[in-house]
Amino acid sequence: MARPKIALIGAGMIGGTLAHMAAMKELGDIVLFDIAEGMPEGKALDIAESGPSEGFDANLKGTQSYADIAGADVCIVTAGVPRKPGMSRDDLLGINLKVMKSVGEGIKEHAPDAFVICITNPLDAMVWALQQFSGLPANKVCGMAGVLDSARFRHFLAEEFGVSMKDVTAFVLGGHGDTMVPLARYSTVGGIPLPDLVEMGWTTQDKLDAIIQRTRDGGAEIVGLLKTGSAYYAPATSAIEMAVAYLKDQKRVLPCAAYVEDALGLKGLYVGVPTVIGANGVEKVIDIKMNKDEQAMFDKSVDAVKGLVKACKEIDNTLA
Ligand code: A3D
Questions:
Q1: Which parts of the sequence belong to the Lactate/malate dehydrogenase C-terminal domain (predicted)?
Q2: Which atom of ligand 1 is closest in space to residue 143's alpha carbon?
Q3: For the complex shown, is ipTM > 0.90?
Q4: pTM to 2 decimals?
Q5: Which of 306, 293, 269 is nearest to 183 (CA)?
Q6: d(CA 58, CA 48)
Q7: 50-69 residue pLDDT tens
Q8: Does ligand 1 come within 6 angstroms of the Cβ of 239?
């Protein structure tokens, strides 16, 4: 059986990290596409040359031609520009929307059967636009954000409680922006929900609130430290987790920016929701119940995403 083909559209910081991880995990043969000449070829060769020491079998190719992504099983899209200090994700909208148009058309022509994971910001609006431009079925186009935001939340909680992050589950919903919704009630340590842990004296409500805020600001914290771009190790790892769920039909329950047809009080919008990911892409959106406060936070986040989608439509009137 032929190896799966993984196309990485955008070979920058996240794209290069994705290629390295996909090779180390032997997920398949890898194509790195970028408009920058030489850079994807250089990264592909460099990673291929790590193969003999690491012992992986994977072919790597760098390219500026969409023809090389032909027949890809998975496309992970990071093409565009990242944030610099002082910028919000929304500041990237105009420039990255144009990038999504060319990427969407490239995928439509050469890899229409792929499972597409978008990472480019502002995430929820870009994944919506990418689905529109590519014309792929909505269940095959989704965005990576919830896995990363939840991983950040889990990391901070594991540090606070002094326990393994393996035993911490966490849940972040809504748009990938300042209004994202970390849900304490659905986040647990060894199955014990966070509000119970506050009652048990493991932490205080104030400390938990500070962790929730740090999670919301998690991207900006890294941008502030790096100064030249945004996070790439954890974003790449999160997208690989989603790609593996698809390639291995794992039926993982993962939060991602998925098209919500009719759930969580929403109709017809891409936003961060709990999903099941397997061989059919996003196989299910999990219609969880929220209390009044949670619903209010979620609604605020949804409004922010709707505002960005409206801005996309104003910039490009071919978007419906
Ligand atoms: P960077 O290292 O700049 O890589 C982006 C690459 O895209 C560059 O190599 C560009 O040459 C390339 N590119 C630009 N235009 C095109 C085009 N039309 N076609 C193909 N390639 C193109 O950025 P990065 O890898 O650090 O980040 C990539 C994106 O991910 C940015 O938009 C970030 O804001 C976003 N990001 C999202 C998250 C989420 O959690 C959703 C986290 C971190 C970064």
A1: 148-309
A2: 41
A3: yes
A4: 0.97
A5: 293
A6: 8
A7: 999 999 999 999 999 999 99
A8: no
